[in-house]
Design brief:
2 domains; binds heme C; Cytochrome Bc1 Complex, Chain D, domain 2
């Protein structure tokens, strides 16, 4: 409420960040963090073969170059755009929380930026000097070293950001001492990094596997050797995913775990949760068997089978990201700020004075008999719109209908008025309602109006901003 409220009333705001972020993670983990070591190892293999005078040296080098060509194009375009896009979209939708994170992690952000720039510089050098490095063995050796440095910087960008992601889920000792170090070394930092690293390696392996079929069309001894190597790589890292996944799950605070079923499958399908867990277990076993099969019988693997591991691992990683984003609810920063952008410590004054009084961007500053509807709209905007739309994805009207009365039947005012002040009790993922009694009243009026009229709520990007009359003086 200290910022104009950007709102997408069709897909909902959460989905915008989710789509950009998940795409970014797929590319970052699958074609940078996990992939660069594979490319460098292949190039190194070519280098070693050349030293040994083997005639496959050039084949390794060529294939590694083609892999890198693909990774270079994708990471420097969609990868980089979505990376920046995460911060754009998150800053639009959740500006107060991004503001808090910048305050806490200013130095980390700055270092992250430097490392990112170095990563880009190294990727340029690595890719653009590749052909030239084939001129002599010394140049090749240095080129492999550049690949190694690139891989390390790529991993470091992830290692820095994960500190912030972990902090959002569990703020640890920071709540007490407010120090950067405590924030960064939060209890979920190491578990999350330990999980992301091997899953990046396995995902990258599945991409490499698929690309091998694309770049090497004909069956050959060399192709079999490549497939064998990649599947060994995947086989080695898959158990690490399982072990780190269990460790991570173990470290997630208990209260948050109660959110996991809804996170994975939504409220409607939360009973499928256990089925999904079996699915995840089965995936891991399946991928181990698959990689063993490929390692021993690479010539038997049909082309279409190569797509399968990519899809399965992408689904697993996507589920993980969804769960991570969801389980920290009702907080955006654990124990400090709720997902509605309001700080825990301010709730006391909001409850007595009302939120409208403290909002910078609102049409009205308190609820009166004449302004109920417009006040209710502002209350909805501030307290519900980060997670609900009016009529579409996670529609507030539909949610109330499902809870209180069959769709189409008018909602019961009294039941809604009773529900809102305790809405966080049964549903741990929703923040408590921050406002006072008259604001509950106004919100109910507005939701009843939404049900009757089917009206939508455009965001500030469409309607323009309204500065609170109290702030205009
Ligand atoms: C942090 C995000 C978030 C905020 C803020 C939020 N909600 Fe929700 N709400 C959810 C989610 C997620 C669901 C469950 C969606 C599903 O069905 O899986 C939900 C469900 C509901 C339900 C149905 C509950 C049930 O037991 O079935 C109602 C009613 C509701 N919200 C009303 C509101 C109102 C009113 C506000 C604002 C005062 C609000 N919510 C704010 C995320 C939020």
């Amino acid at each position: 409420m200290d910022f104009p409220i950007f709102h997408l009333d069709f897909f909902g705001d959460r989905l915008l960040i989710a789509v950009i972020a998940v795409l970014h993670v797929f590319i970052n983990h699958g074609l940078a963090v996990g992939f660069l070591p594979i490319v460098t190892l292949m190039e190194y293999r070519g280098y070693r073969s050349k030293l040994a005078g083997l005639n496959e040296a050039e084949k390794w080098d060529n294939l590694a170059y083609k892999f890198m060509f693909f990774a270079f194009i994708v990471t420097t375009t969609i990868g980089a755009l979505t990376g920046v896009g995460i911060w754009f979209s998150a800053a639009l939708i959740s500006p107060a929380s991004i503001g808090s994170l910048i305050r806490v992690f200013f130095l980390v952000w700055f270092l992250e930026w430097i490392i990112f720039v170095l990563e880009v510089v190294f990727i340029m050098i690595y890719f653009l000097t590749w052909k030239k490095s084939n001129n002599n063995l010394k140049a090749k050796r240095n080129h492999v070293r550049t690949g190694l440095a690139l891989g390390i910087f790529s991993w470091l960008t992830m290692a820095f950001i994960v500190g912030i992601l972990g902090f959002m889920m569990n703020s640890g000792m920071w709540i007490e001492n407010r120090s950067l170090i405590s924030g960064f070394t939060n209890p979920l930092y190491i578990p999350q990094l330990a999980f992301r690293t091997p899953i990046a390696f396995v995902l990258a392996g599945s991409f490499a596997f698929l690309l091998t079929f694309i770049f090497l069309k004909e069956k050959s001894e060399f192709k079999n050797k490549v497939l064998k190597n990649i599947s060994t790589w995947m086989f080695v890292w898959t158990p690490h995913v399982l072990a780190a996944g269990l460790y991570y799950h173990y470290m997630i605070p208990d209260l948050m775990k109660t959110n996991i079923p809804v996170a994975i499958a939504t409220q409607q399908f939360q009973d499928w949760y256990s089925t999904l867990l079996y699915y995840l277990g089965a995936t891991i076993i399946f991928s181990m068997i698959f990689t063993v099969w490929v390692a021993f019988k690479p010539f038997r693997v049909p082309k279409y089978a190569a797509v399968f591991p990519v899809i399965v691992i992408l689904l697993t990683l996507g589920t993980f990201e969804r769960v991570r984003e969801f389980v920290r609810k009702p907080f955006v920063i654990e124990d400090y700020m709720y997902s509605n952008q309001l700080r825990l410590e301010d709730y006391g004054k909001y409850k007595t004075d009302g939120i409208l009084k403290y909002a910078t961007y609102t049409d009205v500053t308190e609820v009166t008999e004449d302004n109920k509807l417009i006040a209710g709209k502002n209350v909805f905007n501030i307290t519900c719109s980060r997670c609900h739309t009016t009529q579409n994805v996670n529609s507030v009207v539909r949610k109330f209908e499902e809870l209180l009365s069959p769709a189409g039947q008018p909602l019961d005012r009294k039941a809604m008025e009773d529900y809102i002040p305790v809405m966080d009790k049964g549903r741990y993922f929703m923040p408590p309602f921050p406002g006072n009694e008259s604001e509950v009243d106004a919100l109910v009026e507005y939701i009843l109006y939404l049900q009757k009229s089917g009206d939508n709520l455009p965001g500030a990007q469409t309607t323009g901003i309204n500065v609170s009359p109290l702030r205009q003086k």
